[in-house]
Amino acid sequence: CFLSFSGNAQDHYSAKVAMATTAKASGQSVSSKSLNDVLVSLRNKYGIQFSYKAQMAKNLQLQVPENLETDTNVDALLSKILQPNGLSYKKVNDVYIIQKNAAPVATPVQAAPAKAVNAVQEQTVRGTVTDGAGTPLPGVAVVVKGTTRGTSTDLNGTFTIAVPANATLVFNYLGFTTQEVPVGNQANLNITMQTDTKALQEVVVIGYGTQKKSDVTGAVTAVTSEEFQKGQVTTAEQLITGKVAGVQITSNSGAPGSGSRIRIRGGASLNASNDPLIVIDGVPVDNDQIAGSANPLNFINPNDIASMNILKDASATAIYGSRASNGVIIITTKSGTTGDRMRLNFSTQHSLSTVNKEIDVLGADDFRKVVMEQGTPEQQALLGDANTNWQDLIYRQAYTTDNNLSLSGSVKNLPYRVSVGYLNQEGVLKTSEFERVTGAIKLTPTFLDDHLKVDVNVKGAKTKSRFADTGAIGAAVAFDPTQPVYQDTEFGGYFEWTDVSGNPITIATRNPLSMLEQKRDKGEVFRSIGNVQLDYKFHFLPELRANLNLGYDVSESEGITRSPGTLAAEYYERGSVKEYEEDRTNKLLDFYLNYNKELPGISSRIDATAGYSYQDFLVKKPAFATFRDNGDVRKEADPFPFETQNTLVSFFGRVNYAFKDRYLLTATVRRDGSSRFSEDNRWGTFPSMALAWRIVEESFLKNSAVVSDLKLRVGYGITGQQDISDNDYPFLARYTNSDNASMYRLGDMYYLLLRPEGYDANLKWEETQTYNAGIDFGFLNNRLYGSLDYYNRKTDDLLSVIAVPAGTNLTNLLLTNVGSIDSEGLEAVVNFVAVDKEDLEWTVGVNGSWNRNEITKLNTVKDENSVGVLVGGISGATGRNIQIHSVGYAPYSYYVYKQVYDESGRPIEGLYADLNNDGIVNDADRYRYKNPEPRFYLGFNSQLNYKNWSLGMLMRASLNNYVYNNVYSNNAAYDVFKAGEYLGNLVDNVYETQFNMRQYESDYYIENASFLRMENINLGYNFGKVLNDKANLRLSASVQNVFTVSKYKGLDPEIAGGIDNNFYPRPTVYTIGLNLEL
Amino acid sequence: ATVYKDFANYKSILAKLYAGFAVTGQQGPAGKPDVGGIDEGASNYVRTYWTLQEIPTDEAVVAWNDPGLPVINTMLWAANNDMTKAMYYRIFYQVTAANEFIRETTDAKLEERGITGANLEAAKKYRAEARFLRALSYWHALDLFGSVPFVTEEDPIGAFFPEQISKENLFAYIESELKAIESELVDARQNEYARADKAAAWTLLTKLYLNAPVYIGQNMYTESITYAKKVIDAGYQLENDYDELFMTSNDKSNEIIFPIAFDGMRTQSYGGTTFLTHGAVGGDMVASDFGIDSGWGGIRTTPAVYGLFSGAALENDDRANFFTKGQTLEIEEIKTFKNGYPITKWKNVNPAGEAGSNPTFVDTDFPMFRLADVYLMYAEAVVRGGSGGSIAQALDYVNALRDRAYTDGAGRINNSQLNLGFLLDERARELNWEGHRRTDLIRYKLFTGGEYLWAWKGGLKEGTSVPDFRALYPIPSDDLVANPNLKQNNGY
What we know:
The complex is a heterodimer of chains A (1078) and B (492). Helices cover 10% and strands 46% of the residues of chain A. In chain A, the strands form 14 sheets. Chain A has a 22-stranded antiparallel beta barrel. In chain A, strands 16-21-22-19-20 form a five-stranded mixed β-sheet. A four-stranded mixed β-sheet of chain A has the order 3-1-6-5, with helices on one face. Chain A contains 14 helices and 62 strands. By secondary structure, chain A is mainly β. Among the domains of chain A are: 2-100, no CATH class; 114-198, Immunoglobulin-like. Chain A starts with a strand and ends with a strand. Chain B has 492 residues and is mostly helical. Among the domains of chain B are: 1-184, Serine Threonine Protein Phosphatase 5, Tetratricopeptide repeat (Alpha Horseshoe); 276-360, no CATH class. Chain B has 18 helices and four strands. Chain B has helices at 10-19, 45-54, 70-74, 82-104, 107-112, 117-145, 167-182, 198-210, 212-216, 221-232, 272-279, 303-306, 312-316, 371-383, 391-405, 420-431, 437-443, 477-482, and strands at 61-62, 256-260, 299-300, 366-370. In chain B, helix 6 runs antiparallel to helix 7.
């Protein structure tokens, strides 16, 4: 929201007096601050913006209670600040107008400026200020330029002011463009203020521009910094976990710096990426996995982020055309403010992470018992004397420190913000580490009388990761608990399974601790993203702006993986030392023209944008040889280093039209050309249209005491998808080279192989059509507010990998456009200010979404016998899949046998229902049972503020998501310990099933993994002013991943993709933090 | 494609066609696979061919639980079996890749690209070899699947539905192709190592004709003899020591007519001889004796094959390569490696016992065709009544193999012993675990039905009758869905 300061600045003397008395009467601890300081701190805290005359606000001193920082509601806070100071605010069109209570209307003050009279000739100017429609505007600030002298208009929009000769009057009113008018010798001035549409209200960043929230016609959610997740947040997406309806963020694992799977409305694609497009300060970033980094988003410091805007439906995303099918997340970083003094913010956080659950495996004694009862004498002879808990050994308590320092303010007309951050995070799995140094500079100067706005961003991060061998997690479950950790061996002093010759058994489970401690897998990534954005408002036609945005996103990674020959797995090859490098260079050029005009004659406002965009992505990976410990070459470097490039060229346009401020229309179109498709299919057009009706502005509701906001939105659009993960040339007939371990001998020479690649010359965009209907509502002065959205989405020409007729292509599985997915969903958000008292405030918010996906077509040929495409490889047997894409079912449905149970409810080993009643149970009896995606997804948050204390929490729930427990299916059978010339441990679940052999495809292992997770509890205390009133100090404590309620038997019910195996546990994180602001 | 402008690329494209039998993709040992949707290593051409030719027969069982694999042991596969699917798509990958090469190397195209002189001559040889490799894969298709979709160089890459060709027409096509390239291929034993020559085409024709009754219901033993003689007359010589045929030095052998070449460093995959060597090592076997890092404990043979070496033969026949220590003869449980005797013939060592270049990936080449097989085919065609050969000659050839296997002629047989039954058994002794058994048993009408039972045939330990339709593998359901022109083999 925007705050406007308008008021009679000439009253500031009396205001001071008034404050002093009020403050004393209240008996509270108070301090004196200028209105300017108050507004700036509000801005910093809430990420809001306002326009005001800095000089006026600086001179107005307010007495401010100390405990205000804990408030989160702007309205309440303003009341608290303003009331004791004899000020109040009025909300007009969501604009805060700050006024002096019962102030005499615009009486020119004679006394103070009297001295000036001596020097300069005075004259009195009278006038009326009106808006574009001729309506008088009360409360417009009228100030003599370069002085503190001013007044404001009365209820009739009139003003009277004494001015020196040759004075210029500045008229300032929030929501309107500030005007400067030279007085000359005029005694009467009639001023028409021009609406500044951009500045009128809370704005939402919508891609190539911003929009007033009230004008938004699509499904867009803005999350600003005050709503961000608190506690130890390492990567940007965690800031909004559980906060936005329809957005599911599932961290891939508990590994430090690891990424998350972000799904907006469940994703619209099958084989193409389902990740949303992420745009940071106007630069759409490369969302691919970067070598040496666990997460493409972990290079941006979450502390630098001011807001995240999530564009969900096609009418909102279509401006991004071919990359918009899975939603768009627009990240805006913090910036400095014009006229602000330098502010320093330092925060430090320290966390301890612990593993809160391990898999129940047989202890040494139980395992010995099983082997003695069921094993052969040879197997029994393999038992050891130790009692080792391998899981305890591989995990640790891990420490994290996260420190951030930022400076922001303005040097003359140059607002700046500079920040540095340092994060050092240990993982709970031993040896995993993540270290990050970030820096960001943002400059937002204006030139040419504010006609040219410049926005310069440079962000850089250097990350260093050490990746633990996560195979150790599975090995710790499966390793024989009767064996010791260490032994006098050639394997670095660790116990390993060996054969009769003392050599390690290739297929045996490896010592998990050795896997961690002996392997060094380190990666370093430097990534920088930045842009220069020039926004020029034409002097001769201020309604027209030209915007040029030049951006880049580059990364350089390098890493080295060392597996010494003392690691059992590398014993025969005598070690492996392998380097890698990857350079990514993405360039961006955007240019657009924006025309924004009020047409009062027809009560209309039009905002039109047309632009061009060019983006190029280049990836290079040099080749390296693999060496042995002794420096011998184990594998020569590939003769042909990897390089790939793709380019996207786009034209886009958007028209926002508002009639009477309540009937809103948005139409967009984007035409994209991608180098990933042949010339015939290169171009795609993606249109959208949306309408909104601000019912609350209608006469029958405008004065309602109950309904404070009501808006109806409907939209339709077509978006595309072209993100075909690792192939930039899928339409081209081309030959590729093999590496040098895949050569063939002809005569006495070995030849690299030239392979003709499979291709689909007719490949084109995937297209998603989305219908969206939504209501935004607010009741009781928005004490209760929220929104409800329904969407229906159909993706056609899915970029799918399917079996092509044998003999027709140079591959059996081809990426082609085939198939459709239908999905629909409901999203609801309700926020409620439950208590709104002076010292006590409690707000709660609930968001929920329901989503359903179904594949409606999958093949070029209609065939009822089509089983579908098997996906979802599992651990345990090579090549086995547990999921399937089939027509009529959700993607990634589990494809299993129906387990038969005995009377006591125990699964009968190997007995499955003969579902097709043909007398035999074979592959034809597998059925599709459940899928990994939740049907319902809920978030619940609460914020309680009491005096200097604040208490926040966030809970998430997921319902009807199913997980395949691969840990159980692979480790819960007596057969498991009879692995060969070595033993393997079992999980406790074997007591329940009593299975002898593994039954990978039983639906017994498909478990309901619905859960309720207490994601975060945080407590803060604000000490207020410290260090001789120079600084503000806040302490906080938080716990993340507090507890999880679920019937799921495995480690964690929240498994992206639904196959639980080797899962790096999400730790519980205890954090204390300190924030100091100077 | 522009790669064909530079003649230097031709050999690398040809190498890919050959390598399609040895490696699984563009990255060794796995990665960037040629065939997707199946475990890459398990779907290696030679490995899968071997699996489908050996595992359902009396020669082998496999312990592993890979998808689709256990039912190959018991002959209970269904249309969506992973192993049959792997084979089918490997075959058609080879056919399609060969089609592409043949299409791009027509005389007109070579001329257009300015390929002349020695390069032109070489290119024509390459093209003939591509046609041989395509014929070889189509023969595998005919033998394993019967009637299959049919594409040639006349069918460019694109979206269409190939027609299914009858067995008769496919037989005729393979025959005509092999005869057409006979003059174009390099003379027998004159080509570079591991490249096909005239003798490779003749060997394939010998096989095609010998099995013609199975494929097209006609006896063509005379034709079989004709081509067997051509091979034999080309000057191949039996390797002195049988065991050395399966060692890392076998690229020096004069017996092997057409090998699939492997190399521990440069031609890596989890199939081929790497699979054959590792797969048969487990239990009390010492991996280093086989030149490998460790065994995979998978494949053994059944008591039936052990029984072919009765009495003294176990001691005296060089081909009786059974590992018995710690193993049981009987197979109580297929998945227990110690049930059944592993065959120790595949090794990653040279005759001096030195290990190959890499303990994981084996250097030994896989003899797709070798002289001993041709001797036995000659003998069988003669015994089955083909003309153009003689019993005496047949006996000589068989005894040449027996002499190699035994010392001092102790293994020799006489005229009266040379009958079809003996020849089938002799093939199992000589060619055990080389990928011939299923075809042989089908030719003898013993693969299906109840006349000959072995352990786990049909899913029972003692063996049981299996319906005749299982003499052909099913067309994979994937392709039935993708191509509406296809009709499934009877019974599936």
